[in-house]
Amino acid sequence: MLNSLRFGELDNPHTKYLVNEVVKGIAGYGNSIGIPTVGGEVQFDACYAKNPLVNAMCVGVIKKEDIQKGQAVGVGNPVMYVGAKTGRDGIHGATFASVEFSEEGEQERSAVQVGDPFMEKLLLEACLEVIHEHADILIGIQDMGAAGLASSSSEMASKAGSGLRLVMDDVPQRETNMSAYEMLLSESQERMLLCVKKGHEAEIEALFERYGLHAVTIGEVTDDKMYTIVQNGEIVANVPVDALAEDAPVYHKPSKEPKRYEAFQNEAAFRPDDLNIKEVWEKLLAQPTISSKRHIYEQYDYQVRTSTVVVPGSDAAVVRVRGTNKAIAMTTDCNSRYLYLDPELGGAIAVSEAARNIVASGAKPLAITDGLNFGNPEKPEIFWEIEKAADGISKACRALQTPVISGNVSLYNETDGTGIYPTPVIGMVGLVENIEDITTQDFKMSGDAIYLVGDTFAEFNGSELQKLLQGKISGRAPKLDLEIEQANQASVLRAIQAGLVQSAHDISEGGFAVALFESASKGKFGAHVTVPFDLSMIFSESQSRFIVSVKQTDKVQFEALFGLENLHEVGMVTEDAELIISSEKEKVVVSTERLSEIWEGALPCLLK
Description:
- The chain has 2 domains: 2-60 and 257-606, CATH 3.30.1330.10; 65-244, Phosphoribosyl-aminoimidazole Synthetase, Chain A, domain 2 (Alpha-Beta Complex).
- The protein is 33% helix and 24% strand.
- Strand 11 and strand 12 form a beta hairpin.
- The two termini are 27 Å apart.
């Protein structure tokens, strides 16, 4: 499991409360069901103060022969409800998520569902047993998520080109006098819907009874392509299935470029002058978005099941695939500030950075899922953001050959007319062909050569530095050349697979300075570096860059294999726990231990 979280600034007591409670909720549920929370990201900006975002990505491994579909096929085959009873919690949850919030909307709090992780664990195990031991009688399986039974059942019928007849009186209920409307739209948790072969209901009932769970036949598949709901012997709804699924109306909302976009495009680039490099470096590492998230991820059980190879804190989490010599790398990414400046470019950057994280871990990017978080799409400017972000994601995925295999959408993230930055969170998975290729970001040995992959430009718009110094973000987002991005990633991965790379780390928020510190501090090393640019540019957030370390004995082979003009040897790893960065005009010396104290201590201090 990975999570991508967004909160307001931590000078707000309510935001501190939200952070602590959200993390507690993720830890409490995730730890209880025995699924390791192995990675994620947390970012802080004022626009999320009243609209925090919690995006979760769950990655599983399945044998090809065990793949199941969410379909209801075969006239007369029973549809079975399994799991917890249905209550009124979560009714209109999907609707609740499709309106703007307001201070007067606190009464809607009842729309939030109540979860039971221990029942969830039992439900997961029972469903897996059905899949593994009774695949010959299982026809389809679907979870009950947004819009509950109505959504899951109509989707199963639509995918199969079938109809359904459901009897609401048979739905397990934990509250009295529930109407068919309430039962269909309830979003009570820990529930699944199965379609099985007729005559095998007793086997399924007995299996779930062993887990202490309900398994009840609530309907059957029909051939009329109608969605028929019966309660108390009367038909209370009779709707064409496809009207609820495939034939649902597609929105074509008006789109309009926001005034801010043209202003940002024409604005002079932000260029920091006369920086106290050491002071700025320390302040950046204390920013909550950059600071260590150890305080958060140590509340999660990320080693349960003992397959986690690379734990939280590196570029990507890596989990071993048992019974093979392979592993899966996983990450979530999105710098929403770039999307605020330029949604199309920012969308492409989000995909590219996710891929860099995967590559830096020694894996080949395979595919993405996206969680599209935006404001009110009924506003033309917001719909424009959605269109442009989707275009950027599409272009990057095509360039990097990472198909979009799933995703979800969360709109109307506004309160009292104030919306969030466009935040299309990218979840990406990659394959480590050989576990010996697994690479982490920390330097491994004193004397190793340090290389900067990619070119650095004076690009500070939308950066942590701009926010720190100006208290805002504005201007043009950093440029991105997808051909260069693809070439740099391919070269780094090729070098890793050839066994020539000791460490690899992508450069993102805070620029070269932050990435160099992270690589040095985790291995308790220092570094002596000379950069081919002005020292202030160590905070630039130019794209398509990595920091890699290489053994001295492998340098010639590494450079020959790499074959890129934008490969720069900049220094070497040292034992002295100091970071020394020089340019033609100046030099800065900082203590790795001092920076580590700031970086590790910032978030716990801010959350007090």
